[in-house]
Design goal:
The chain is built from eleven helices and seven strands. By secondary structure, the protein is α/β, with parallel strands linked by helices. It has two domains: 223 residues, Spore Coat Polysaccharide Biosynthesis Protein SpsA, Chain A; 82 residues. It starts with a strand and ends with a helix. 33% of the residues are buried.
Length: 322
């Protein structure tokens, strides 16, 4: 089954035309399908329109938040309640074209785990949306090593197993293909249509680029250093120790060879602050190591993921949790 996940917030005018287009696109598919619409605390008639659509069509499922929690939370809720083995998130503003979904599914059938949409011809304002997006995409590709042209496109297709261990927070839904690639998933990118917004207004502005940068730092840290935080804190601590050592030697040199008093230079203060900061970083790293071990052991989690096993039983801990 294919589960299409559609977060919506104050998109009442887009509900009926989007559902009509979605039914038209998925109606000719041999696969069973459902569309899970998540109302993210709308203040207009979005939920009313969704309820009417669900009453008329059993393929339409609706979740409603008590208050707005953001697009990422809405996507996570839709994924948690979806029944399909293939997950297709898309925007609810009609800028994504449901007619592209069969093309994504066909590409997925070629053996890929993720197919990411690429809005090559974007219909947004260039200065406030397109340009910041292109800069962010270049930065994300450089930091992550995953070469995607459009990480911000919501329209993607995932195999369910790729998302099983993924928990989304903040604005991190755009990084799921990157996370999947780091776990060994096969990823393809496919050009998709992008249409002008005809109803409502965008919920995002230029400040989203800064959020992307911060979220990227979090994803990078969690993926590469979640099980070894001492590498980050320890390296930072050693850097400050090095600064402290150099500052101390320089202060001593000035004292004994240049007759410069310690109070005439900031080097002793730099030595002290560098040493204290280095100690704090090392202690934080050790504390983080204890927390990581507590996290994995308390929840029965393992610091690895298995794609498949052949002629092997489940590990005892995993069997005990069932």
């Amino acid at each position: 089954m294919v589960s299409v996940i559609v977060p919506m917030r104050d998109e009442a005018a887009n509900v009926k035309p989007l559902i009509d287009a979605l039914v038209g696109a998925m109606g000719g598919q041999a696969r069973q399908w459902e569309a899970v619409f998540v109302d993210d605390g709308s203040t207009d008639e979005t939920l009313t329109a969704l309820k009417a659509a669900a009453a008329a069509n059993p393929h339409i499922k609706v979740l409603s938040f008590r208050r707005g929690a953001g697009q990422t939370a809405a996507l996570m809720a839709g994924i948690d309640h979806a029944s399909g083995g293939i997950i297709v998130p898309m925007d609810g503003d009609q800028q994504n074209d449901p007619a592209d979904i069969p093309r994504l599914l066909a590409k997925l059938d070629e053996g890929f785990d993720v197919v990411s949409g690429w809005r090559r011809d974007r219909q947004d304002d260039y200065a406030s949306r397109t340009l910041p997006s292109r800069v962010a995409n270049r930065l994300i590709a450089a930091v992550s090593g995953v070469r995607l042209n459009d990480t911000g496109c919501t329209l993607k297709a995932y195999r369910r197993e790729v998302l099983d261990d993924v928990r989304l927070y903040g604005e991190m839904h755009r990084f799921v293909p990157i996370y999947a690639a780091w776990q060994g998933a096969r990823i393809a990118e496919l050009e998709v249509a992008h249409r002008l917004r005809r109803h409502g207004r965008s919920k995002y502005g230029f400040e989203r680029a800064f959020k992307v940068l911060l979220d990227l730092m979090v994803v990078k840290f969690l993926t590469r250093y979640q099980t070894k935080p001492i590498y980050v804190f320890g390296a930072t601590g050693l850097f400050f120790f090095a600064v402290s050592f150099v500052a101390g030697l320089w202060a001593l040199y000035l004292k004994f060879f240049e007759a410069t008093s310690f109070v005439q230079t900031p080097l002793p203060l730099l030595f002290t602050l560098g040493f204290i900061t280095g100690v704090m970083c090392l202690l934080m790293g050790l504390l983080a190591e204890v927390l990581v071990r507590t996290y994995f052991e308390a929840q029965g989690k393992r610091p690895y993921t298995i794609k498949e096993s052949i002629n092997l039983p489940d590990p005892p801990a995993a069997a005990g949790r069932r």
